[in-house]
Amino acid sequence: MINTNDGAPGAPAAARFPLGQVVSTPGALEAMANAGQEGSQLLARHSSGDWGELCDSDKQANDRAIEAGERILSAYSLRTGTKLWVITEADRSSTCILLPDEY
Fold first, then answer.
1. pTM for the full model?
2. pLDDT in tens, 30-52
3. Contact 33, 57 (CB under 8 A)
C-alpha cells in the first residue's frame, strides 16, 4: 500500500516540496530500463519525504533541508540492485536522477 495523507488506500502521498525541472542521466535511464522501473516511482517517493536508503541523520538533514531551502538527496535500490540517487537542488529549480558514480 502506498503512504497517503488522507487515509485513502492507494492514493499517493502529497509532495512536500517542488521538484522543478526533472532530468535523468543516461546511466540512470539505462538502469531504470533494465529494471523495468520508471523514474516517476522514485520521484513520488522522494517528493513525499520517503528518503529511501539513507541513515537516520541524513533523513533528518533532508527534513531540515525542506524548511531551510537546502539540497535534498534520496537513495533507492532498483529491482536489479542498482542504486540510484535523486537530488533536488536547494533553489528547487531542478531534480536529477543519477547513478552515484555520475555525481
1. 0.88
2. 999 999 999 999 999 999 999 99
3. no
